[in-house]
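<purpose> Linking amino acid order to shape
<body> The protein record starts here
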Amino acid sequence: MLSVSGRGRDRVNPWTYVLLVVLLIPFLFPLAWMFLSSLKTQVQNTAYPPVWVFAPTLGNYREVFQKNPFFTFTLNSLVVAMGSTGLALLLGLPGAYAIARFKRTGIALAILTARMAPGIGYLIPWFILFTKAKMIDTYTALILTHLIVALPLVLWVMIGFFEDVPGDLIEASRIDGCSHFAAFLRIALPLAKPGIVATGILAFIFSWNNFLFSLIIAGYKTRTLPIAVYSFLSYEEINWGGLTAAATVITLPVLLLALFVQKHIVRGLTLGAMKG
């Protein structure tokens, strides 16, 4: 796809852009459809054939914020996503370092096998446990359930980074008197910083978008944003305008976060792929 001009500078083949546009259409079209539907009335959203030319309205967004405590839902999502991401990093980073350093591949395979199981398999035991402990509708219960997604992600991505930390540096720090934990803090963690940033961002996004665990474990006080969208569905009618407006509000922070930190994500995952 790259050609060299007479001045020695690489130029991208125009067909590369055509191919990129074709590949991006299946991903961007649903987002564009969601945003356009959020600006339509209910009649326009249910019209057939679809209405492409219309006068946009912000009524659906007003309905979302006036009829629902959306700021409370946003705060709940932030607390749960940041809590589960922080706890996953706190537990996962030492675990990944230990697995990589002491070659405990059996533990890593057991974690991967457990992660491959469907989430609903964990949901019923979690629900019974939290019901007995009177922890339903609490941040603690939601954060613990979201660890099922975040913790294996942190472990498996970070194992590759810690495996690439030069063993000589670790041994030199041990000779200088560092304990295993001190070597982990002072040598391994700084060298694996790109991976930690990328993994933390991905774990936050996975938790932010989680629907299944929040639907069962959360109550009225801890309802998160994906559950708030569910309230626009009823047996009698689907409020397409409110549904797509709420989905746009939920998606926007994640898209902005991905745009602002895309360099960290690409750099971290690229380094991880090269090391893997």
Summary: Residues 34 and 118 are 28 Å apart (CA to CA). The longest strand covers residues 2-4. Strands lie at 2-4, 10-12. The mean pLDDT is 83.
